[in-house]
From TrEMBL:
SUPFAM superfamilies: MFS general substrate transporter (SSF103473). Keywords: Cell membrane, Membrane, Transmembrane, Transmembrane helix. This is MFS transporter. The keyword S-adenosyl-L-methionine does not apply. Residues 28-450 form the Major facilitator superfamily (MFS) profile domain. The chain crosses the membrane at residues 24-41, 61-82, 94-115, 121-141, 162-182, 188-209, 263-285, 297-321, 341-371, 426-448. InterPro entries: MFS, MFS_dom, MFS_Na/Anion_cotransporter, MFS_trans_sf, Sugar_P_transporter. It is a multi-pass membrane protein. Pfam families: MFS_1.
Length: 456
């Protein structure tokens, strides 16, 4: 063998290994999927433990509804500051701080009532901790959207946002049975201890491994060029800019331009409607199964996993369907709207639960409805398609703020209607109506295109 042949052999082997190498952006997506799963487990933990916590601490049904809503009051109000912090300091630092703080607050819930505590004091403590959870989790989804915009080409962004958004369903499918079992065997406090340990481990992993595309040690020049040429905005993170986008601060004209965009108001309204179904599922659904259908807490953990699993599959299907339409030459508007409208129309089937007393049929209907909700949950993909490079986190945060007003309204309305009527029938019709609201908002939102500022 000649010297030239010998020299070329390792290069060929290295090239083959490079071709088999998993792109770094997929590992980034896997990491934010896992973090988002724990994020949703944290915020939905109270729904699984709610019946036990309510009984031990002495909360009424209406008081429990307010506790369920506490997260969203703070979550909505903290969205804008969270988005501005992300645009100023980047996702890596703000996400790490957010993850560490929300983990500590989650773990602290386990301490409430360890010593004899009046009901009002326990109520204030749990309410306050849920408020803090909302504040500290507020940057998470805007950070996810920012990371998707930074790391993924446009033609892959529907799938990327669908994957991290579907983590909310995966979290319930995975954690609801575990949390139900832990609550049944060891008590509700240990659920919050378990989530605290998971969150702290993920905080350490994030800080040690995560970086921007331009600065990540694992990203190859070929992958970086593929992201940039496909429309990924790799220079969003502070200190990593390749100089392609302006970093000028937002002013009144730019903010007015953002809020004057018709498509953005369409996604605001549709995200509100989508989240109404989300918050029914992560707050009152387990309580509905216990009090309305007579299931045991252990059964609820497994039953709640079925609609969640189908919501997860629907979420992935919506993202892949959207990107497939885009690759086949369909317009961005059609590729994002069609799965969204079909899915949210299907989600209205939740109202059919009021026509049957069969628990098995009710679970089947819920499963169908939440598959539709998953299919139609493309609000984050649309937001990353619309947001200007200079204000990706600002736009994501405002969308998330509008959407999560549903987290305030839905638990409280359901709490009052259940207490007033003694059943969940009105509550289910209330939730189903939001599916129609989403369809209407998506239908009239106009074309989907990125906002560009006039710099003249």
């Amino acid at each position: 063998m000649s010297d030239a042949e010998t020299a070329s052999k390792p290069v060929t082997t290295g090239a083959r290994q490079a071709r088999r190498r998993i792109p770094t952006r997929y590992l980034v997506l896997a990491l934010i999927f896992v973090i988002t799963s724990v994020n949703y487990a944290d915020r939905s933990s109270l729904s699984i433990t709610g019946s036990s916590l309510q009984r031990e601490l002495g909360f009424s049904t209406v008081q429990l509804g307010y506790v369920f809503s506490a997260f969203s009051w703070a979550y909505v109000l903290a969205q804008l500051p969270g988005g501005l912090l992300l645009d100023r300091f980047g996702a890596r630092r703000i996400y790490a701080l957010s993850l560490g703080l929300w983990t500590l607050v989650t773990a602290a819930v386990s301490l409430v009532g360890l010593i004899t505590t009046p009901v009002l004091v326990a109520l204030i403590l749990v309410f306050a901790l849920r408020l803090l959870l909302g504040v500290f989790e507020s940057p998470a989804f805007p950070a996810n959207a920012r990371i998707a915009t930074t790391w993924f080409p446009t033609a892959e962004r529907g799938r990327a946002t669908a994957v991290f958004n579907s983590a909310q369903y995966f979290a319930t499918a995975l954690f609801a049975p575990v949390m139900g079992w832990v609550t049944h065997e060891f008590g509700w406090r240990w659920v919050f201890v378990l989530l605290g340990v998971l969150g702290l481990a993920l905080t350490v992993l994030w800080l040690r491994w995560m970086d921007s595309p331009a600065g990540h040690r694992r990203v190859t020049p070929a992958e970086l060029d593929a992201i940039v040429s496909g429309g990924g905005l790799v220079d969003l993170e502070p200190g990593k800019s390749r100089g392609e986008h302006s970093r000028a601060p937002l002013g009144r004209r730019r903010i007015a331009r953002i809020f004057g965009t018709r498509a953005l108001w369409g996604v605001y309204l549709s995200q509100y409607a989508v989240n109404a179904l989300t918050y029914f599922f992560i707050t009152w659904f387990p309580v509905y199964l216990v009090k309305g259908r007579g299931l045991s807490l252990l059964q609820v953990g497994f039953v709640a996993a079925l609609p969640a699993l189908c919501g997860f599959l629907g979420g992935l299907a919506g993202g892949f369907f959207s990107d497939t339409l885009l690759r086949r030459g369909r317009s961005l508007t059609l590729a994002r709207k069609l799965p969204s409208i079909l899915g949210m129309a299907l989600a209205t089937s939740i109202a059919l639960c009021t026509f049957t007393d069969s628990s098995a049929l009710i679970v089947a209907i819920m499963t169908l409805a939440f598959f539709g909700k998953g299919l139609g949950s493309l609000g984050w993909a649309i937001t990353t398609d619309i947001a200007p490079p200079e204000a990706t986190s600002f736009v994501s945060s405002t969308m998330n703020a509008f959407g999560n007003i549903a987290g305030i309204v839905t638990p409280i309305v359901i709490g009052y209607t259940v207490q007033a009527t003694g059943s969940f029938a009105v509550a289910l019709w209330f939730v189903a109506a939001h599916g129609l609201l989403a369809v209407l908002a998506l239908a009239v939102m106009g074309p989907i295109q990125r906002i560009r500022f006039d710099e003249r």
